[in-house]
Amino acid sequence: MPAPTSLRPNVTLVVRNAVVATCDRGPSDVGLLYGAAVAVADRHVAWIGRDRDVEDAVDLDGARVLDARGGLVTPGLVDSHTHLVFAGERAGEFALRVTGRSYLEVALSGGGIAVTTRATNAAPDETLFEDAAARARRLLQQGVTTIEVKSGYGLTVEAELRLLRIIQRLGQALFGQVTIVPTLLLHAVPPQWGGDRAGFVSRICEELVPAVAKEKLAAFCDVFIEEGAFRLDEARRILDAARARGLVPRVHADQLTSGGGAQLAADLGAASADHLEEVDDAGVAALAGAGVVAGLLPLSTLFLGSERWAPARRLLDAGVPVSLATNLNPGSAMSENVGLALSLACLKLRLSPAEALVAFTAGGARALRRPDLGRLAPGAEADLVLWGCGSAEHLAWHMAVNHALTVVKRGRVVHE
Ligand code: NIG
């Protein structure tokens, strides 16, 4: 016997006849509920349970009904590492790398990030905004409802502020469709500061970071620790200054060389240490001890033609929380292909399909310190994806195609 209408919460949208993956049961369990329904009140999940109970549990009067037809329903994906504001292309560099030049060789001979920085700084705001919005929409169409977006191709105080303002505008323009999480990224020391690296770092700490904090342009501050980018001591200075202004640290760590980035991330209580292809055992232990999320980015490893895959199993076995993201950028991962990232996570990082899906949802949300996202439970933000298949295994198996049929953001259908 249904509860009287007055006792049943009124809902605005309901997904019925679904295989729901709640992604809130830990790293290896997608939390499957068969024959399930999800009810949404405005922008939050109100109820999850057996489809046959939904009419007794909530008041469906006036609610939009989506029939999942027995398909998989998951939280919206959280892409927790992207560099999607940039101009120009690096196709020539790609061709060079295919013939045997390494990413580091190209970077150290004046290519790489420096090329994108020149093109980005020469591009009008409107071009950067429109191109970034198009990339974000391509992600949204594949089920991504939250995107972390880094600056990093400006390399001067004013240029980085400009990029962060464009990211802020992106967040406003896409509000209600995709949540944009902005990160200030220090990506490289520009050539004009090569003789005075300490001076450049001081400029960042004393001018850029305070300006970013004052304008509330970023939630996080990230530093690329690598040969040809920043040294460990420089990164520590920058991230200490960022932390003092309320920005949460994250780190590009141990990507091409093992440089102690994971250890630094742990020391600073960073939200994440991303890449980690070259992380050593001490780094893994430090991440586990500090609860820092390991950001897995297999599209980069593929794109760089490397066989040095991040030791994801070792990280998971040590108890390190993991996220999975595209790392969309022109130099090391020119791809918005979410499906390929999921499949590579399984094929090359040896995650199970369930672990890959949890890493791309709850794991990403944890990396962004947003427990309201990336999982389905009463009270969580109603970001949902209805997929054209019935399992996480199928998502990873049928590789590099878009299985997302309907995307719901904050309780409203934003793509179908
Ligand atoms: O995350 N590693 C540093 N940053 C990007 C690459 C940027 C570029 O080459 O333009 C990454 O892989």
TrEMBL record:
The protein's Enzyme Commission number: 3.5.2.7
Domain Amidohydrolase-related: 72-411
Cofactor field: Zn(2+); Fe(3+)
Cofactor descriptive note: Binds 1 zinc or iron ion per subunit.
Keywords (A to Z) from UniProt: Cytoplasm, Histidine metabolism, Hydrolase, Iron, Metal-binding, Zinc
Keyword Plastid: no
Localization terms from the record: Cytoplasm
Chain sites annotated for binding Zn(2+): 81, 83, 252, 327
Pfam families in UniProt: Amidohydro_1
Residues at which N-formimidoyl-L-glutamate binds: 153, 329, 331
Residues annotated as transmembrane: none
Residues the entry annotates as binding 4-imidazolone-5-propanoate: 90, 153, 187, 255, 332
Enzyme class name: hydrolase
Binding locations of Fe(3+): 81, 83, 252, 327
Pathway as given in its UniProt record: Amino-acid degradation; L-histidine degradation into L-glutamate; N-formimidoyl-L-glutamate from L-histidine: step 3/3
InterPro entries tied to this protein: Amidohydro-rel (IPR006680), HutI (IPR005920), Metal-dep_hydrolase_composite (IPR011059), Metal_Hydrolase (IPR032466)
UniProt catalytic activity: 4-imidazolone-5-propanoate + H2O = N-formimidoyl-L-glutamate
Domain of life from the UniProt record: Bacteria
Family per record: Belongs to the metallo-dependent hydrolases superfamily. HutI family.
HAMAP family in the record: HutI
Function: Catalyzes the hydrolytic cleavage of the carbon-nitrogen bond in imidazolone-5-propanoate to yield N-formimidoyl-L-glutamate. It is the third step in the universal histidine degradation pathway.
Protein's recorded name: Imidazolonepropionase
